[in-house]
Amino acid sequence: MSARPPTPIGPAQAALMAGPVSIIVGSRDAALRPHLMRAVGCRLDEDRRRVTVLMSAAGSGEVLADLRANGMVAVVFSEPSSHRTLQVKGRDATVGPCGADDAAHAERHLRGFVDEIGHIGFAAVVAHTLLAHQGDLVAVRFTVDEAFEQTPGPSAGEPLPPQR
Question: Taking a C-beta distance cutoff of 8 angstroms, is the pair 163, 48 a contact?
């Protein structure tokens, strides 16, 4: 039996990803044109190797088409009140239906994000506007191949070391 490969996601990064953060999903098409869309929630597998981000299908057409075509994904998680920021990348993204609990998960993320941006002076309507969806959620699932510290400062851009 072989050991599982390490993941660059440690407990601190996992906590950030699960928190009330801004989540931006990035992709690129065959001509290397970037596309971005906001996610409305994130789940990280217990071993911290697989990520599922929840997105509204409406308005995500280009990102979802890119992911279906090439599987290349970059996701940025940023905590508005502290600017703590993490970027993760994968090469095997798939787009599929959400699970039974995903709508409730997105709602919990929204409530946390309302509180988070409220601490820095934004009204709840901002979070509701940014994370709006019409029950059209899809799940983007991928393996974390790389992760980078992106918090502004001297370590921004540094790759995260493997964790066990």
Answer: yes
